[in-house]
# Entry
Amino acid sequence: MGWADLETSLDPQPLFRVEGPDGERSWSEIERVVRFRRLMRDLAPAVLVCAIPNAGRRNPRQARREGIQGGAFDYLVAWGIRQIAFPEFKGYDARGRAGTLSDAQIDWGNRMYLLGHHVGCFFRPRLRSAGCAIVAHRSEGASMASAPDLRSIAAALGGEVSGNRVLVPTDGHSKRDRGTVITLNPDAPDGVLVHSFNGGDALAVKDELRRHGLLPERPERQGMPKPQWRETGCYEYDDGVGNTVYRTKRLEATGHNKRFVAERFEAGRWVNGLGALPRVLYRLTDLQNAVAIAKDKANEPPLVYFVEGERKADKLISMGFVATAIAFGANGWQREYADALAGLSVVVLPDNDDPGRKFAETVKAAVEDVGGTACIVDLPGLPAKGDIMDWNGTADDLRTLTDKALSGSLMPLPMLDLAALASRRAEPVRYVIERIAPEGEVTLLYGPGSAGKSLLGQQFATCAAAAIPCLGLSVASGPAIYLTCEDDENQLHWRQQHLCEALGIEMSALSGKLFLSSLRGELGNELANFSGDGQMSLTPAYHRLVATLHATGARLIILDNVAHLFTGNENDRGDVTRFVNVLNRLAMETGAAIILVGHPNKAGDEWSGSTAWNNAVRSRLWLEHDEEADVRTLSLPKANYSQKGDVVRFRWLDWAFVRDEDIPQDRREAIDDVIRANAQNAAFLACLDIRNAQERPVSESPASRTYAPKEFAAMDEAKGFKKPQLEAAMDRLFRNGEIEVGLVCRTGRKDRFGVRRVCADLRADPAPTPCADPAPTPRRPAPPHTPYTTYREGEALGAASPSSPDGELDWSDSNSGAAWHDYAR
# Structure
């Protein structure tokens, strides 16, 4: 590319003139820098010098005559293989004539090109990322740079232009905020003044403008103290068996870019440099252990995430991934690194810049050369030069991006290695709760209201934390979580205190093992949101649950209940399946058993909603309460890994569930007596309700033909109880104040009395029967009756008219109306 190529791509208006090897050339107005994008590839690796002379003291009309637009500055930017500075260059002279650069100063054979200031500012980040040198020279009485373009500032900071200033959001506020004002001022050191009206940092705003290349860098000051480097990170590299081979240290100093140094351990101390040490991947031991564990379980090897820096790998590992890196990032790749990734599936996360993308391609090709599979995943929303540390996505977001990238590269489905499996015996399914809650699976627990699901869940969690059986079922020892959205903390405390007393456990002994959490009354408890197009997104509540599970290491998690945690359409197979699959994945990743508590529907079915609730899980429990016998039954209507139909029966005793065989003999006999008495009472009341509804009252008197126990003994509702048992029931009910003798019904004009339930509201008694008066006869005529009407004026019919005390009204008074009213009072 030569002068002609550059000139044809520029606007024809001259900006300034320069003396080149072919004579004087007119330069062009280059503020519209977008068209220079395609030139950048062709210019490298030439030296690019940006120099626009100072016109601050020149006559404005002369400036317009010369075609100069924009502000004035004396600014040199060098890009390429070496630093270039021209302190002799003085720009325009007092008469506005163009200054010159001699051929000695410009090595035309090295392809130097003169470009404008705005091009240098626009490409400053790219120049720096390529390792280019930037040199500025300040002429006497001249400013380092002109004020930047207002629209460029607005575009860079997300603001808007208003007159000669830009209104931008203040850091920490919304994008619509306009609390920071940037004003052009040629007398300011950087050409702009920054003022924040809501607590922003003006210096930070200027630094952001420098990062976008809109302001010049701060010049190094003479006599400044040496930078104080501080260590902000130390990363050890091991040999795959846990032995440290070398380490890298991250150093930072105010006003300087970060630095990395490598050290090896030699002669009992750390020395600089790696010497002849072999290069290894970061956290190689963790990587190889993860691969070995997957192989032992005959599982597909885990995905390995590859990033440029150690800190980025540590973040991915904290998110639950297998990750690695190399020393010195994109500049440190060596072919031997790929050997440790042979046969593995690698996901490369590049930095958001050209070197990062080139590095990702290098790693991908190297992994494929050693028999591995690799793909590149670009993280959305990264800023320029951003990386995983700047990304706000979650672990599930990254999994989704990875799955999409892997499906795009048509990776084959994972298959079992039958040859490897043939060499060892298959392992049976392990249970956290014997027969009913498999390890690494979601189990559903349903039952009607007040059946005792919450108490049973908390008792299961307590027994797991205390390492004791529960209702005759063995429970794996380990930390347990009981999370409820229906009961408050006081109720949790009440139940836990009585559970500990019933089970003989000290509550303090469960600290650090049993974790109880109440989310009652909180908003946002749902674990996932569902959009109209069938997409599911995980919520902060889900990520809080995952973090809690990892922090506690729980082996058993009770989630009470599904109505609060699932807000999708319970009749939609897709919504239900996606929700259960997310919990199944969490259970598999942690090896925990998750029990999800739910309610049946109004019809009394064993679950509410789609059949996907039943189909998506491998185990489902049903809790039923026989109120008459006061017996709970826990059954297993679905069991893919154990015998279907298993049942466990137990009773409520002192705020805990207990099997009959675990109750002492004397307590059991007393309980049986109470249960029989309750059954007899219930049978008596059922018979009584039927007879009274039929208006066939019964008597409490043994001498009566309708003696209640005798009448009830012949009814089916008596459940086989005979007259003596029903007599005892009637006696108990009278003593308990549940029945009484009173009016039962009226037939014709006769009131009928008998035994009835106690009615606290007297208005519930039968209403009196209306009775018509007897017909009049000559001996008994009808009584006098004064008709009432509102349509007649004057004296009422059949009654005397009102009279005054003197026997008549005095109409002679002119105020007759007042006299009448006084009398009426």
